[in-house]
Write a structure and sequence with these properties.
With 517 residues, the chain is mostly helical. It contains 26 helices and five strands. Helix 3 packs parallel to helix 5, helix 5 packs parallel to helix 7 and helix 7 runs antiparallel to helix 8.
């Protein structure tokens, strides 16, 4: 490195470590003014822009980093990661694919496997994880990643043994207990209940891993039919998980009110021109309402690729509003809605997602919380189809309560908050149906599992697709599934999930009453 640039780099790093973002930005800019293809400085400028709430500048700097020469594999991994963090999924995928990893160390293979997992490419990620394992890496983290990817890819042989090894080598890896519990249905003769009980008893009350163990204990107790004990484990798990999350039900309802007030029929009557190329099929609703089953049905069609839960539309909303926010949309974005260039929003979304169609004319985007974006999707992507899964409120809410999510659904660990969110969701969906009649096709989960062919035919007709019998044989599909339902959706379509909440009816009265009885 040029000595002058090295001094500037040291100065900028010091300023950033002291949280002096403005001066750090100026110094990094001085570096790229001298050396326009200095990838590390562009990476730092992207981070500083995000800290300052300048989303477009953050994206531009990350793209500049990817355009600069970078031979160091760790640097290339950092660039891929940063591109993902600002919503440039296609560029990140292309950059990752262009990275030569033939002779890479096992640790680098592991890093890129994690990146490909985040990109929604579990099969490619598993190949790299296998290569890292073959190169001699034996860390519990790699064993756990390989096990998770094997589950996503439907290759469960050896997964149970790998998870047990993880737990022997790293007992603190609580998520391995949870993943193991979901691997199959346990019995009174074969389970890990006593081990899980000992584990959770030994954990500090505020240990962030406690929720994983409680939820694993719930799953195995439920499998064994020990419902009172299972409920107690679930209640403890929900309390442990809710403790570390921020959620404001009143603020969420206020946001729904703003969306309804902003997205009037007049506002929604203006649409961008339809774009060419593969068209998205959005699947929205509540998580655990059957969205994955519906996506598997569509993905079995010869003209559809199931692309999974894509975050590209929320990211492009952030770009359109030049706003850094954890909530998309948030109140400020809704206030800016009449100033968004929806044609550009649609073009940017398609430019970052159409590659996932892999040559087919349609692809799915199954991010449940896009139900908040329906009005903006309608304006930006008139060619898009929108499907909404509808499931019995008690079944839906209980299924959410008993699932351990990431940070995306913080309302799902408290009965009153879950019910309050669900009622707000129903109110917003009723608005979309009034304001956009015929634009959203509701799919009943109960009807789908009772008569799969009839409902699948209706869905395909709405999407403009011909009937294909393979669509209802989802258990025969070999493609990867990277959701909470990954094990269940490899089974034939069934009705076993209907009314499961009734096992816990005596403990769910708060939920039932909060839903309106």
């Amino acid at each position: 490195m040029d000595p002058a640039i090295a001094r500037l780099w040291h100065q900028a790093e010091t300023q950033l470590s002291q949280r002096n973002a403005a001066d750090a930005r100026a110094t990094y800019e001085a570096i790229v003014a001298r050396e326009p293809r200095h990838a590390p400085a562009w990476l730092r400028l992207s981070t500083v822009a995000s800290l300052s709430g300048r989303f477009r500048d953050s994206v531009a700097a990350a793209l500049s980093a990817s355009a600069a020469p970078a031979q160091d594999l760790l640097l290339r991994a950092d660039i891929c990661e940063r591109l993902l963090e600002v919503g440039e999924s296609k560029t990140s995928h292309d950059y990752c694919s262009a990275t030569k990893l033939d002779d890479a160390p096992a640790e680098i293979l592991f890093d890129f496997a994690l990146l490909l997992q985040k990109l929604g490419e579990p099969a490619q990620a598993l190949r790299l994880a296998d290569a890292a394992f073959a190169a001699g890496m034996r860390s519990p983290q790699l064993r756990y990643l390989r096990a998770t990817l094997q589950i996503f890819c439907g290759r469960n042989e050896g997964v149970e043994a790998a998870l047990e090894t993880c737990l022997r080598e790293a007992p603190q890896l609580a998520s391995a207990h949870w993943t193991l519990s979901k691997l199959r249905r346990w019995t009174a003769q074969e389970n890990h209940v006593e081990r899980l009980q000992r584990c959770v008893a030994a954990m500090p009350r505020h240990d962030p891993g406690a929720a994983y163990v409680w939820f694993a204990l719930f799953k195995e107790l439920e499998d064994c039919g020990r419902y009172p004990e299972a409920w107690q484990a679930l209640a403890q798990g929900c309390t442990a998980r809710r403790r570390g999350l921020q959620y404001d039900l009143a603020a969420e309802h206020a946001l729904f009110d703003r969306l309804i007030a902003r997205c009037t029929p007049e506002f929604l009557s203006q649409q961008a021109a339809a774009q060419t190329g593969p068209a998205p099929i959005f699947i929205v609703g509540q998580p655990r309402s059957g969205t994955t089953v519906l996506e598997r049905i569509l993905g079995a069609h010869s003209q559809v690729t199931d692309a999974g839960e894509l975050h590209d539309f929320p990211y492009q909303m952030l770009w359109a509003c030049d706003r850094q926010s954890r909530q998309v949309p948030d109140a400020e974005m809704v206030a800016m809605a009449d100033r968004i260039d929806y044609a550009e929003l649609g073009r940017r979304y398609l430019a970052r997602t159409q590659w996932r169609a892999r040559g087919k004319p349609f692809y799915t985007d199954k991010l449940p919380r896009n139900f908040m974006q329906i009005g903006f999707i309608h304006r930006a992507l008139p060619q898009a189809k929108i499907l909404r899964m509808v499931r019995d409120p008690m079944d839906t809410c209980f299924s959410n309560l008993k699932e351990l999510f990431g940070a995306a659904y913080p309302h799902s660990y408290d009965q009153r908050e879950m019910a309050g969110h669900f009622r707000g969701y129903q109110r917003l969906m009723a608005h979309w149906h009034r304001a956009l009649p015929g634009r959203v096709h509701d799919v009943s989960y109960a009807d789908l599992v009772a008569d799969p062919e009839r409902i699948a035919r209706e869905v395909l007709e709405f999407c403009g697709l011909p009937w294909e019998p393979a669509c209802v044989a989802i258990e025969e599909r070999l493609s990867a599934v990277a959701t909470a339902s990954t094990v269940q959706v490899r089974e034939p379509i069934h009705q076993r999930s209907l009314g499961q909440w009734k096992r816990y009816e005596q403990w769910l009265e708060t939920l039932r009453q909060a839903l309106g009885g």
